[in-house]
Design brief:
By secondary structure, this protein is an alpha/beta fold. Helices cover 42% and strands 14% of the residues. It is built from 14 helices and ten strands. It has an eight-stranded parallel β-sheet. A two-stranded antiparallel ribbon has the order 9-10. Helix 4 (83-93) links the parallel strand 3 (67-72) and strand 4 (97-101). The structure holds flavin mononucleotide (FMN). Residues 18-21, 23, 42, 44, 70, 72, 101, 122, 143, 146-149, 176-179, 197-201, 203, 285-288, 290 line the site of flavin mononucleotide (FMN).
């Protein structure tokens, strides 16, 4: 399938793996790129910028295909802002693409000017998609309310947001938030997207480093098993609805805690411990509603192949209606 996204990135399939804190590691990224999509490693896993360089090299040792580095610039993501350093390392290592997220990356763009690196800026609204085009992003990834992680505070679903975004900008839109199979991929293309970004489905793939017990629990989860938390601190997160996220929701709704008050409940270290132990109830795990579409753990190559085959089948089926 040839789209502006595949052409710009030199990849086979218009599928991008979302940057996923903790989980977007070299092994997963390389598997996605080897499957013909765009794999992504997440800079925020590497508090020491040089570790990001090592991760880029590790990914390259596993794939010759293009891959991306997600640089999330959300307030909680970086202890001390390493963003400029991350951009510099990407430029030096010559990665194919950077996906920036969380705030406007314009001040870092001179660092990658002339390197050939494609900038994909991730946004949750039409307004910010236009802004991404204006600052010179090559593509914009747009995620609707269904998405894992940080959908926009405007709470607009993928169906309306993707449609409006694709009409509003002339750079390619990579649409996400609820895309996990061929049908949703075909729908995204019908809305005007040039490709899709998938997080939840990739999190549950065989190569994802999520603990096997948690993967097993999540494949049993349905579309109603996610919850929106951290609205009170204006850092809204869609996560797996479990004991911990429900507790956060309860505290937020009982009174308006400050970030400091909420921190012990949402801190990364508690989540890290639970993730390592395979405790699906004690970790805050970003998760999208598309978890309801995923009921088995399969290798990334099989996932990508299935999504592409089913999307083509859906497009043919729709064509035959005419
Ligand atoms: C566990 C997990 C962690 C995530 N962490 C990040 C992150 O650190 N930065 C980011 O830009 N997006 C993050 N995301 C969002 C994904 O990159 C992607 O936008 C989203 O998952 C797409 O929607 P979907 O989950 O419906 O496929 C995360 C997603 C998951 C599942």
């Amino acid at each position: 399938m040839n789209t502006k996204m595949t052409e710009l990135l030199g990849i086979q399939h218009p599928i991008m793996q979302g940057g996923m804190q903790h989980f977007a590691v070299p092994k997963l990224a390389a598997a996605v790129s080897n499957a013909g999509g765009l794999g992504t490693i997440n800079s925020t896993i590497y508090p020491e910028p040089e570790l990001l360089r090592a991760a880029i090299r590790e990914t390259r040792s596993m794939t010759e295909k293009p891959f991306c580095v997600n640089i999330s610039m959300l307030p909680e993501a970086n202890a001390g802002d390493q963003t400029a350093k991350y951009f510099e390392i990407c430029a030096e290592e010559g990665v194919a693409a950077i996906e920036s997220a969380g705030r406007n990356p314009v001040e870092y763009l001179p660092i990658i000017a002339g390197t050939g690196i494609k900038l994909i800026h991730k946004v949750p609204s039409v307004k910010l998609a236009k802004k991404a085009e204006q600052i010179g992003a090559d593509m914009v990834s747009v995620v609707g309310l269904e998405a894992a992680g940080h959908p926009g505070m405007d709470e607009v679903g993928t169906f309306v947001l993707g449609n409006l975004a694709a009409r509003s900008v002339s750079i390619p839109v990579i649409l996400g938030g609820g895309v996990a199979d061929g049908r949703s991929m075909a729908a995204a293309l019908a809305l005007g997207a040039q490709g899709v970004v998938m997080g939840t489905a990739m999190l549950l793939s065989e190569e994802s480093p999520l603990h096997g017990d948690i993967k097993a629990a999540l494949t049993q989860a349905g579309e109603k098993d996610t919850i929106l938390i951290q609205k009170s601190i204006r850092n809204m997160l869609r996560a797996f609805k479990n004991q911990r996220s429900t507790r956060v929701w309860e505290v937020e709704n009982a009174y308006h805690p400050t970030f400091k008050e909420l921190f012990p409940l949402i801190s990364g270290s508690a989540t890290k411990e639970a993730l390592t132990a395979g405790d699906a109830q004690a970790a805050i795990i970003a998760l999208g509603q598309s978890v309801g579409l995923v009921d088995e753990v399969v290798p990334v190559a099989e996932l990508v192949e299935r999504v592409m085959a089913d999307a083509q089948e859906e497009i043919r089926r729709l064509g035959a209606l005419l």
